[in-house]
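Q: I'm teaching a short session on how sequence maps to structure, and I want students to see two examples side by side rather than one. Could you give me a first protein with its sequence written out and its structure tokens following it? Keep the formatting plain so it prints cleanly on a handout.
A: Of course. Example one:
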Amino acid sequence: MSKATRFSKSFTVDRSILDYLQRTRASRSRSERLNELLRRAIVDEQYDLLEREAAEFFAGVGKTERAESRAFAAASRRSITRAGD
């Protein structure tokens, strides 16, 4: 766990979150446990963003592009079979 630079901030947190932190902190402080959970949440959010970006990128391949790819593949096969004769 990184302890290089720490800042003291004040946030309002629900009682249920504080209770969860207290139950799951083991030998760590509640602040350390909260930082661990926040880091996990940030990574999860980044993965979700990457998934959405990938879905948008691949959704951009439409019927026209697929038809062109199939035509190119068919032409390549015909060219290869002619060259082998």
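Q: Perfect. Now a second example for contrast.
A: Example two:
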Amino acid sequence: MRTGSITALLLFAAGALALQTAQAQEQYTLTYRLAKDHPYRFRDTTVVTSSQEMMGQEMKSTSTLVSTMRVVPTELKPDGSTVAEVSAEGMMAAVRNARMDTTFTFPDLVGKRSRVTLSKRGETLKHEVVDTVQTSTLAMAAGVGRQEMMRFQVLPDKPVSIGDKWKTVKPDTAGMGPGGQVVTLVSGESTLLGKESHGKHECLKISFTGTLTLTGKGSMNGMQFYLEGNGKSSATYLVDIATGLAIVADSRNDVETTVALTGQQNMTIPGSQSAVTHRLLLED
């Protein structure tokens, strides 16, 4: 190899190393910066595989939930928080187990708006119902609730560089049956993996690994139930630097649960569940 070629190669390698070092040292401050009155549309696809043991028999089930959500910011506050209206444009659940193989839709939820107030990091500060609806027992049994239809990623509370890690805690409360609720606490560590382009968006790639706990209670068909669970949670998502939105997100939750039923009969039902979700920002 000629001396000139070697020199050029060394200069190229040094330049690439300098660029990588500069990118690693560059800091990013992520906040939600949404456009007022602009509709953002997302498609979520969740596949849930579950197994429960009842009266000595194992019951396995696979459910697929596909929903298209619409988020419209209606107020941008001086403190950086955002008020947005959230509604479902479409929702479908396919359930397959030993007793059924069928598909359901939820027309009573389509177009019904909720209003959410988000901090500039994406924390839910307030949630309220705009359009009331009598949620069907089927929807509640499938785990489809008004507040749970759209989740926002919580962004780091300080500037971060590539390779940085930070603790993430995500408490969440979901409705379950008449007057019931399930509290989920996910905690773990997030890592800024790098910077990459996705379509017209410049994004930061972030990973998360952690644990989750479930506690809940409620009633269904005249019986009280109590839920406990523990498991693992992981996710990888691309956050648009300009808006703070996760335009692509993949997550997985694996949990072992115990459900105690009281009422007409008492029983304890152990089980396991795995949920895999893919989210995509829909664009024209």
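Q: What should students look for in example two?
A: Point them to this: Confidence is low (pLDDT under 50) at residues 137-144. Also worth mentioning: The chain is about 10% helix and 60% strand.
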